[in-house]
Design a protein that fits this description.
Distance between the termini: 19 Å
Number of domains: 1
Number of helices: 22
Structural class: mainly alpha
Largest sheet: none
Strand content: under 5%
Length: 408
C-alpha cells in the first residue's frame, strides 16, 4: 500500500506531457491582457481628443476597468474549477481581445467606457485561470521561476504597448495598436487547444457550485488575508506605473517618443525583477523575497519621483520597477500555494481582483494628491505608504512554499 501511495505521488509530481504548451499559453495570454490595459495610458491625450472629454475622464476609465475585474474572476474562475482550465481560458482571451479591438470604433465616450468595463471583466477572468494553469502545470522545483515569468508577462505587455507607440502608431495609426492583438489571441487559442489539463485540477475538481461555496466558507480567513495582500500590492504596482508616463510629460516636458523609450527601459528592469525575485523565492521563501523587493523599491523612490535629470529618473524608474515587479513576481506561486486545491482558479483570481477593486480609486487618489503635494510628492507619498503596509502584511502572513498542488 505504501509503495502504491508513493508511486501515485510521484506520478502527480511529474509534469504532464506537453506541459510546456500549457505554461506558454498561460503566460502569452497574460502578456496580451496587460498589453490591452497599458496601451490606453499612452493614448490618454488621443482618446480625450477623440471623445471630446478631459484627460481626467480617460484616467477614470482605468478605474472602471479595475472595478469590473472581480466579476470576471468569479464567473470564469468558477467555470475553470468545474470544467477545466483550457476552455474558459480560450473564451476569456477571445472575449477581451475582440472587445479591445472594438475600442477605436466606439461612437462616443460612454460607449468607450462600456467597452473598457467589458474588457475589465475579461481581464479579471484571465489571471486566476492563467496563473493556475501555469503553476499547476510547471515542475514543482521551478514553480518560483515560472511564477516570475508569468508575472513578468504583465510587464512585457506594458513594454509592448510602449513599443507599439513607436513602431505601430506612427505608421498605421493609433487604431492599430488595439487591432493588432487579435493575431496573438488566435495563436494563444491554438496553443491552448494543444495543451493538457493539469493533473492537479483533475484530482481536485468539484462537482457543482454548492461545493465551491462551501469551500470558500471554510477558508474565509485565508480569503480575507489574501484580499488585504492583493489590495496593498495592487496599489503598489498601479501607483508606480499608471500615471508615470503622464508625470514625465507633464512635469518634465518629455515628448511622447522619449517617454516611450524610457518606459521600455524601466520595463526591462521590471522583467528582470520578476524573474530574479521569483527565482529567489524558491530558495529563501515567498514572504522574504517580497520584502526584499520592497526594500529595493524604497531605495529607488527618491530618484524615481524627484530625479532632476532624465538619467536620474530613468535609473530610479528602472530600480523601482525591478522592486515592484520583483514583489509581484512571487504572487502567482504564493497565491496558488495558499489557495484551497479545489478552487485554485476561482480563489486566487477572486482575491486578486477584489484587491484590484478595493484599490481601484488609488490612481484617482494619487492623481488628486498632486495639488497639495505636487506630482512627484504625491507619487512618493503614495508608494511609501503602500511599501510600509506590505512590509507588515507579508511579515505577519502565512506561507506554504513547495506545497503539493495535487494533494487535497
Amino acid at each position: 500500500m505504501t509503495e502504491e501511495i508513493l508511486a501515485e505521488r510521484s506520478s502527480t509530481a511529474r509534469p504532464a506531457p506537453r506541459w510546456q504548451l500549457a505554461v506558454t499559453s498561460g503566460i502569452l495570454g497574460w502578456i496580451l491582457d496587460a498589453y490591452y490595459f497599458f496601451i490606453l495610458i499612452f493614448l490618454v491625450d488621443t482618446l480625450a481628443a477623440k471623445f471630446g472629454v478631459g484627460k481626467a475622464a480617460i484616467v477614470w476609465s482605468i478605474t472602471v476597468t479595475l472595478a469590473t475585474r472581480p466579476l470576471g474572476a468569479l464567473l470564469l474562475g468558477g467555470l475553470a474549477d468545474r470544467y477545466g482550465r483550457r476552455g474558459p481560458l480560450i473564451a476569456c482571451v477571445l472575449f477581451f481581445s475582440i472587445v479591445s479591438a472594438m475600442t477605436p470604433f466606439a461612437p462616443g465616450y460612454h460607449s468607450f467606457l462600456i467597452l473598457r468595463a467589458l474588457y475589465g471583466v475579461g481581464m479579471g477572468g484571465y489571471w486566476g485561470i492563467g496563473a493556475s494553469l501555469v503553476i499547476e502545470s510547471s515542475p514543482a522545483r521551478s514553480r518560483g521561476l515560472f511564477s516570475g515569468i508569468l508575472q513578468a508577462g504583465y510587464t512585457l505587455g506594458y513594454l509592448l504597448a510602449a513599443a507599439a507607440m513607436l513602431l505601430v502608431v506612427p505608421r498605421f495609426g493609433w487604431q492599430w495598436s488595439f487591432l493588432g492583438g487579435l493575431l496573438l489571441a488566435a495563436a494563444i487559442a491554438v496553443i491552448t487547444v494543444l495543451a493538457p489539463e493539469p493533473q492537479a485540477w483533475k484530482k481536485n475538481k468539484l462537482g457543482g457550485s454548492g461545493d465551491i461555496l462551501r469551500t470558500l466558507r471554510r477558508h474565509k480567513g485565508e480569503f480575507a488575508y489574501l484580499v488585504l495582500l492583493m489590495t496593498a500590492i495592487t496599489c503598489f504596482s498601479h501607483g508606480s506605473q499608471d500615471l508615470y508616463p503622464d508625470f514625465l510629460q507633464t512635469v518634465h516636458r518629455l515628448k511622447s517618443e522619449a517617454v516611450s523609450n524610457l518606459a521600455i527601459f524601466y520595463n526591462v528592469g521590471a522583467i528582470l525583477g520578476a524573474l530574479a525575485i521569483g527565482y529567489l523565492s524558491q530558495e529563501i521563501g515567498r514572504r522574504r523575497s517580497i520584502m526584499l523587493a520592497l526594500g529595493v523599491a524604497l531605495l529607488a523612490l527618491p530618484a524615481w519621483a524627484f530625479g532632476a535629470s532624465v538619467a536620474m529618473l530613468a535609473t530610479g524608474a528602472f530600480i523601482m520597477q525591478f522592486g515592484v515587479q520583483g514583489a509581484f513576481g512571487v504572487i502567482p506561486a504564493h497565491l496558488n500555494e495558499l489557495s484551497p486545491p479545489s478552487v485554485r482558479s476561482l480563489f486566487p483570481g477572486v482575491v486578486y481582483q477584489l484587491g484590484t477593486l478595493i484599490s481601484a480609486p488609488s490612481v484617482g487618489l494619487e492623481y488628486a494628491l498632486r495639488r497639495p503635494l505636487g506630482y512627484g510628492g504625491a507619487m512618493a507619498a503614495f508608494e511609501a505608504a503602500t511599501i510600509v503596509a506590505l512590509f507588515l502584511i507579508c511579515g505577519l502572513g502565512p506561507e506554504r512554499k513547495d506545497r503539493d498542488l495535487s494533494a487535497s
